[in-house]
């Protein structure tokens, strides 16, 4: 069975600083990987996804993530954080057969300070 | 294109009362999911539908939870009776195959508080 670990429960960064959120997964085959963002009281919005091909994927809002098979990681990055990026971020893994439920990590809460 | 619609957005009930949540998926999406998100946790699957058939309900507490998806479109999730531990956000999502790639689209969720 697949699993996802997000080691950081809460991260605080200054506005304009760079950001990296960590995600490690466990799955025996090639995973589908996702990053979602959830603002307070809102549903989940997809930031980016990896299925195959280029291991560096670009998403919305200036986010990117890099799939590293050797490290079983899919870390999310942003070069310059904006105050509006404060939210909860979830990494998730899916399986190749498609339309199967995603397995989510416990999330990382991002706070942005002036 | 309209997104996944859920109602109500918030619900407060006393324990032992029944409650129901409604979900309308994106048009044309044949797969529908109900997830539960406890405070400080990621979403966890309760049940998955392919059209009107429940194909994965192993995590659904069947003694008090029930779900249906009549005509393979809208879905209702019910809890009867509710317990204090059922307080959570209930998320509905839908998806459709596009070749080998797929994406799950989530609704805003229903936040349930059981007193």
Can you give a write-up of this model?
The complex is a heterodimer of chains A (114) and B (115). Chain A is 0% helix and 51% strand. Chain A is built from no helices and 12 strands. In chain B, a hairpin with a 2-residue loop joins strand 5 and strand 6 (53-56). In chain B, 0% of the residues lie in helices and 48% in strands. Chain B has a domain at 1-8 and 17-49. Chain B is mostly beta strands and 115 residues long. Classes of the chains: A mainly beta (114), B mainly beta (115). Chain A binds chain B through residues 4, 32, 36, 41-46, 49, 51, 90, 92, 94, 96, 98-102, 104-107, and chain B through 4, 31, 33, 35, 40-45, 48, 50, 56, 91, 93, 95-97, 100-109, 111.
Topology, element by element:
The complex is a heterodimer of chains A (114) and B (115).
Chain A: E1 3-5, E2 10-14, E3 19-21, E4 24-26, E5 32-38, E6 44-50, E7 56-58, E8 64-68, E9 73-78, E10 87-94, E11 103-104, E12 108-113
Parallel strand pairs in A: 2-12
Antiparallel strand pairs in A: 1-4, 3-9, 5-6, 5-10, 7-8, 8-9, 10-11, 10-12
Chain B: E1 5-7, E2 10-13, E3 19-24, E4 31-37, E5 44-50, E6 53-56, E7 65-68, E8 75-79, E9 88-95, E10 105-106, E11 110-114
Parallel strand pairs in B: 2-11
Antiparallel strand pairs in B: 1-3, 3-8, 4-5, 4-9, 5-6, 7-8, 9-10, 9-11
- What's the domain count of chain A? 1
Q: Which second-level CATH architecture of chain A applies? A: Sandwich
In the predicted model, the low-confidence regions of chain B spanning at least 5 consecutive residues are: none
Which sheet architecture does the biggest sheet of chain B show?
Answer: 7 strands, mixed
Shape of chain B: globular
Q: Kindly state the percentage of residues in helix of chain B.
A: under 10%
* CATH homologous superfamily placement of chain A: Immunoglobulins
What would you call the quaternary organization?
Answer: heterodimer
- Biggest beta sheet attributes of chain A: 6 strands, mixed
Q: Using only CA atoms, what is the Rg of chain B?
A: 14 Å
Low-confidence stretches of chain A: none
Please report the number of helical segments of chain A.
0
Total of helices of chain B:
0
Q: How confident is the prediction overall: mean pLDDT of chain A?
A: 92
- The helix/strand order of chain A is EEEEEEEEEEEE
User: What spatial form of chain A do the alpha-carbon principal axes imply?
Assistant: globular
Structural class of chain B: mainly beta
